[in-house]
Amino acid sequence: MTKLCAASKAASITPTSQAKLAVNWMHTARFFTTAAQLHQLPAVEVPEIAFVGRSNAGKSTCINTLTQQRQLAFASKKPGRTQHINLFALGKQGQMDAVLADLPGYGYAAVSRSDKQRWQQVMANYLVSRKGLTGIVLLCDPRLGMTELDEALLEVVRPRVEEGLKFLVLLTKADKLTRAEQAKALSIARLQAGGGEVKMFSALKRQGVDEVAELLWQWSHPTGAQAGDVPVNAAEAQAEAEADTDSPSKPS
Ligand SMILES: Nc1nc2c(ncn2[C@@H]2O[C@H](COP(=O)(O)OP(=O)(O)O)[C@@H](O)[C@H]2O)c(=O)[nH]1
Ligand SMILES: [Mg+2]
Fold this sequence. Notes:
Elements: H1 2-9, H2 15-26, E1 30-35, E2 48-53, H3 59-67, E3 85-90, E4 98-102, H4 113-129, E5 133-140, H5 148-162, E6 166-171, H6 179-192, E7 197-200, H7 209-220, H8 232-244
Parallel strand pairs: 2-4, 2-5, 5-6, 6-7
Antiparallel strand pairs: 1-3, 3-4
Helix pairs in contact: 1-8, 2-7, 2-8
C-alpha cells in the first residue's frame, strides 16, 4: 500500500520511468486460458492485445522476451502446431488490467488445406468480432517481408483500425539485418502498412523491447495510470526510477 502511495505521489512520470513501469508490467504476465474456438473464450472486461503473424515469424519468442518469461508462449520447434488462442493476464495478482492473446501462426506449408482454412476462419472471426480487442501486433520476418497472408489480415482488420483499433507491425529478428537493411525494411513495411506504426525488434539483442512494452502499456491505459491500477512491481519500478537518478523532484 505504501508503495502504491509512493508511486502516486510522483509529480510526473518521466520517459525512462514510464518504460521501466511498462517493462515491469509486462513481467506480470501469466497464463490465463486457452481455447480452440472464439465462442469458447471468456468475455474479458479489460483491454486485449492480440499477437498475430506467420508461423516462424518469431511470435512466441517475442512474447517470451517482452514478458521476460522463457516458456510463457511456447517457442515451438514445430511451427503451426499451436492451434489455440492462448490468453495471458497482465497486472497485479487478482487485478488483471489487460490481456495478451497469442493467436495461431498462419502460412505453415505442412498444414493441410482444410486445417488452414479452418484457422483462417477462427482468426478472421476473432479479429472481426472479439469484444474488448484494443490492439493488434502483427509480427513479420523482414527477410520475407509482408506476404499475401499478412496483407489479407490487414484487409480483415482495416475497418476496425479505421474505427480506432491500435495496430503495430513488428519486424522481428532485426539482428539478422544490417542497419541499412533495417532502414529499407522499415520503409517498405511502412508503405505496406498504409502509414501504420512499424518497429524493428530483436529478441536476441533485446532491440525494441522497452519501446514495445511502453506502447502496449499506453494502449491499455489510454487515460494514464491511476494509482490503484499500478501493479505492485511497476510501482516499485517507479519508486526505483525516482531514487536512481539525481532527479530535480527528489527532496534533498
Ligand atoms: N536471430 C533471431 N532469431 C529469432 C528471433 N526471434 C525468433 N527467432 C528464431 O526464429 C524461429 C521461430 O521463432 P518462434 O518464436 O518459434 O516463431 P513463431 O512460430 O512465430 O512463434 C526460432 O528458431 C527462433 O529462435 C530473433 O530476434 N533473432
Ligand atoms: Mg509460436
